[in-house]
Structure prediction request, 226 residues.
Amino acid sequence: DADVTQTPRNRITKTGKRIMLECSQTKGHDRMYWYRQDPGLGLRLIYYSFDVKDINKGEISDGYSVSRQAQAKFSLSLESAIPNQTALYFCATSGDSSYNEQFFGPGTRLTVL
Amino acid sequence: AQSVTQPDIHITVSEGASLELRCNYSYGATPYLFWYVQSPGQGLQLLLKYFSGDTLVQGIKGFEAEFKRSQSSFNLRKPSVHWSDAAEYFCAVDSGGYNKLIFGAGTRLAVHP
Prediction:
């Protein structure tokens, strides 16, 4: 079984709709992250959480919100989706040290029409 | 601000040939540096990382990278490429030691038989 899972894997929605992307992990990590990937831009950090009570904005948080429901669950919401939020979204987790690698989920491909 | 540059967007090599993917970073202190690989339809997987010590680091799948402080570079190398190495490769730097990664735009590698 995968250590980091994301649901859904693919989603097509319309402008103005509310969308939630979910991430679950079984690695027992405290730190979780949401990134978006766009062609030619690499991955950019949207939000990160170092524990259940600690949530921080990343580089591109405008238009997004997150919820850390438990140590193992970290959800990303688009309150009112717009076409330029069409991207590949990745969730990641890591241990508590900067020496720890980040483990990535398989990604969610989101298309906003 | 910290940044990572991968000058080559696409690289094509023949199977069995050597490979070098370039990565330059901008960061004031000693950086934590990473190389990740993304196979088609997959999440990212860590190839190797550098924090301190020996500037030549070995990773998985026969990859290695060399940290050169004077050139602000962390180039990825492999002596003999296999067809299964076709993927997108991302260099990343840890921003400030909080395990917040800044990614380069990626280099897509194609391998000809």
